[in-house]
């Protein structure tokens, strides 16, 4: 479904990757309304529970509404069951909402987090509402430019520092090419111990047309 005139669009680059102790999610911070940059420092890493986050692309209104609904149901499940919900449960809720309303929504979602049953896990719900579990996931308009890099640079068993650098480099590459991605880079490291936020300002991003990228 195309965006309506003047609708805020998360033309973006979002990403999540699993590593040994958990997952790392990341996103740029540019929000656009048509050709106009509505916000340069948007936080696109949306918590839906203590150790479960989603990354949103598509219509800001659609994805924010879906995330609010999922957050409400996860809180209800946690109270009813007496334990934290799983990442799979959160992903299944996103999947159900997106699939049942696929003709009325412009929403691409990446769900990532940590739970006691699966540890760190990453799920992607693309346009159309299907659900896929993957070791890493990328989405948004900027993802077009980094599939090759991600396929080349990703490897299983990365350390925390290697996974952070992998996500940061991929998003910076997308920002350097995609006009709808920009601003700063926000990362979140999600493990059993909790959530750690990492911020990289726009003037500290690598300039790939100046420095050779080492693969």
TrEMBL record:
Catalytic residues identified in the record: 12 (nucleophile)
SUPFAM superfamilies, sorted: N-terminal nucleophile aminohydrolases (Ntn hydrolases)
InterPro entries to which the protein is assigned, alphabetical: Ntn_hydrolases_N (IPR029055), Pept_T1A_subB (IPR000243), Proteasome_bsu_CS (IPR016050), Proteasome_sua/b (IPR001353), Proteasome_suB-type (IPR023333)
Keyword Protease carried by entry: yes
UniProt keyword annotations, A-Z: Cytoplasm, Hydrolase, Nucleus, Protease, Proteasome, Threonine protease, Zymogen
The reaction(s) this protein catalyses: Cleavage of peptide bonds with very broad specificity
Superkingdom of origin: Eukaryota
Molecular function via GO: threonine-type endopeptidase activity
Matching Pfam families: Proteasome (PF00227)
Similarity comment: Belongs to the peptidase T1B family.
Name of this chain's protein: Proteasome subunit beta
Species for this entry: Rhizophagus clarus
Upper classification of the organism: Eukaryota, Fungi, Fungi incertae sedis, Mucoromycota, Glomeromycotina
